[in-house]
Design brief:
Layout: H1 3-15, H2 18-25, H3 29-43, E1 48-51, E2 54-57, H4 59-86, E3 91-98, H5 99-104, H6 107-116, E4 120-127, H7 130-138, E5 144-148, E6 157-168, E7 178-179, H8 181-186, E8 188-192, H9 198-209, E9 214-219, H10 222-230, E10 236-239, E11 251-265, H11 272-283, E12 299-300
Helix pairs in contact: 1-2, 1-3, 1-4
Length: about 300
Amino acid sequence: MQLRQLEYFLAICEAGSFSGAAARLYVTQPSLSQQIGALEKELGAVLLERGRQGVTLTPAGRALLPRAQDAMRAVQDARDVVRGVAEGRNGDVHVLTVRSVASGVLPPSAARWHSVYPSAVLRLHDYSHRRDLAEAMRGGRGDIAVGPRPEPWEGPVVSLGYEEMVVTGPAEYPADTAADPAELAAADWVLYEPEQGMSEVVDRLAGHFGFTPRAVARTGQVSAALLFAVEGIGLTVTPENAVPLRWSRHTRRIGPGLFRELVVFGRKLPSQLAGRYQDMLTSLELPLTAERDLPEGAIRC
């Protein structure tokens, strides 16, 4: 059974004659009759009877009619849905990211997206480490990825800016206070498990200042590390944008500033809908620093 045959069958029912249906469909009447004959042969039943008053449905035809209508409606719905996705009017955008970025950077873009494209669902999938993020993107699990720059990477990469890393502890400090490297070397630390991407940031910090952090606790969550640090267990490092406002005075800059670049990347050019989200990310004012505005001597990780 072919969709064309069902379309021809419905056209005959609506027109009331083979000739009227042939004219509506821009096909010859013999071609129309041939398709209906093939359909009746496949089903093993006569569907239409010709008479002086036109065409009438047989019992088999009456049974087929509502099902043929349902089938054609389903086909039209499928066409509309696919066309809507292709034209960027609706659909899902699967965005892969790392956990700290999902909570600290992307919420404003998600709110903006919903207001502009209320029928297009933004689906965030977060990972602990940038290597897991890159592997998921290579495996085709998302439309675009947002996170630390993957190295190496074959595909389009667009820089969004740099997020600053800060050190957090139990004491409160005036704004723009920098942590002393000697204090960092002597402190107890709340560190991250190796599978957490922030562990790379701490390693970069320790390597730059030439010390080995003394671990008193380890966690896989940035939020837990912050809570432990503010409670006085030890110092920790987090993205500044992940620190709740009520704890902002517990944070200090690290030396001239420790920064991690965030990018949008993919395996190929994004679809129209995913491209619109990428454009939105690059146009919004995110809690990131442009490369030209990085302080002199900034440490990059």
